[in-house]
Amino acid sequence: MLLYKIFFTMNFFQNIQSFLLIIILLFSFVNCQNIPNPRSQQTSSLIGNRLYFFSGDLSTTDSHNDSASNVTNEVWYLDLSSSFNTATPPWRKDVGMPIGYNLGASCVSPIDNSVFLVGGRMYIPNTANINLGSSPVYVFNSNISLWTTPNIIGFNSSFKMRNQIQPVIDNYGKIYTFGGTNYTGFNASYVDYNDMNILDTTSMTWSTLAIYTNAPPTFVSYTATLLPTGIIVYIGGYKDTLTRSIQTFNTKNYNWSTKVAGGDNIGTRVSHSAVLTQNGEIIIYGGSIWNDTTKPATPYIAKLDTSSWMWSIPNLSQINSPQLCDHSATLYGDYMIIAFGQIPSKSSMSYASLSNNLYILDVKSYILVTSFNPNQTLPPNKSTTNQTPSPDNNLNNYLIIGIGVAVGIVLLGGFSVVGFLLYKKQNQYPKFIPTPGTTDRI
Ligand SMILES: *[C@@H]1O[C@H](CO)[C@@H](O)[C@H](O)[C@H]1NC(C)=O
Ligand SMILES: *[C@@H]1O[C@H](CO)[C@@H](O)[C@H](O)[C@H]1NC(C)=O
Ligand SMILES: *[C@@H]1O[C@H](CO)[C@@H](O)[C@H](O)[C@H]1NC(C)=O
Ligand SMILES: *[C@@H]1O[C@H](CO)[C@@H](O)[C@H](O)[C@H]1NC(C)=O
Ligand SMILES: *[C@@H]1O[C@H](CO)[C@@H](O)[C@H](O)[C@H]1NC(C)=O
């Protein structure tokens, strides 16, 4: 009897051990599930201390083939209030969007912190099928993880499915969206635009500005950055000019003007990202050259001083620096957080290499850091995060958060004549043939 008891106890402990082992295995399995798949063309926004990433294309077969898209509705976020290592970011999944979504952009209302996803291509999730019943705007309340669609007064139906755009929101809750295209697939007719659409989120009214004589031509896949002065700076996009002449739009008087930037030579780019620093510098990162998405933009990092309109190229070490397009970039204190995207040197017509990596660039020293420490980048007591610099509180604020999202790519997906010609040219290029040894993935 005693012997039996001893046996029983041993068995019991062994059972407990295996039970624990199973629990641990299950837990790590669940943990593995908690890493987002590589993706590109997502959009991101900082809401308080949470950095959100909305949707994107998961397709690993051919990012330029619209019928091979796999557009997700997933929403992921990172909590930036505690430290982590870039190798193991603390990913959390939130309630997914009602639709699959890419090539649009999100902006956070300075009034109530709700997120507006404006324009973009909308799909039946995890398919390449456009969702014809989608709303032009989706709103996310991150406090209660709730998605809603607003009733917009005077919506201009030509804006439906408008993509490869970057809206910006001002401190009064007005969202400005320039141009874009309603291209959604090979067989549908589409139009490229150079209009300015404004959504006043306080009254949910829509207006389309008449096209001014000095408005830029149609362009897509640009970045838009709102300065504290109320001026929106447009950089890059599909237009055959160097980044030297920069289009700006004044949200105070609705005037367009062109700034001719000096300083270093900056090559053309699309599908790059841009963030605004507290010193009034716009840092652009990544992208590909405007007429060949397989070639990374050069230099792949540059900064524009928006008081002198001078470009300079930071001395960022080329080694270990990722080259990405259709990624996201967000400034949090002195950290530029770069995430997801496509590696342009591999983004040939037949094969796209996507990333789910996270890179953190310290924009004071231009060094890539592997550990994120909120106390090192923010003063301890100041927790106000101001995503959209306003005329009133901007440059004095210790923390101005610039958000940039690389928008668009899709060499085949845009702009009429140019797009078609490029497509023909692109097809003549040797296709990238992936072999086990050829990886420049970092
Ligand atoms: C899309 O991606 C998801 C996640 O990787 C996968 O489960 C699904 O099968 C994919 N769908 C298609 C149509 O490729
Ligand atoms: C784009 O807009 C034009 C004009 O409104 C329309 O004729 C066309 O069908 C639209 N294309 C798509 C793909 O929605
Ligand atoms: C809607 O947008 C189109 C394209 O920019 C423009 O031509 C049209 O005038 C706009 N309609 C209104 C009512 O503003
Ligand atoms: C891309 O455009 C530049 C001019 O901006 C031109 O010199 C170059 O040949 C073009 N490349 C291709 C692949 O068309
Ligand atoms: C980068 O380094 C070079 C020489 O090492 C120097 O001449 C240049 O001014 C530096 N640029 C910046 C932006 O610091």
From TrEMBL:
Attractin/MKLN-like beta-propeller domain residues: 134-365
Signal peptide: none
SUPFAM superfamilies hit by this protein: Kelch motif (SSF117281)
Listed InterPro entries: Beta-prop_ATRN-MKLN-like, Kelch-typ_b-propeller
This protein's UniProt keywords: Kelch repeat, Membrane, Repeat, Transmembrane, Transmembrane helix
Superkingdom assignment: Eukaryota
A Pfam entry, by short name: Beta-prop_ATRN-LZTR1
Parts forming coiled coils: none
Transmembrane segments annotated in the record for this chain: 398-423
Protein name: Attractin/MKLN-like beta-propeller domain-containing protein
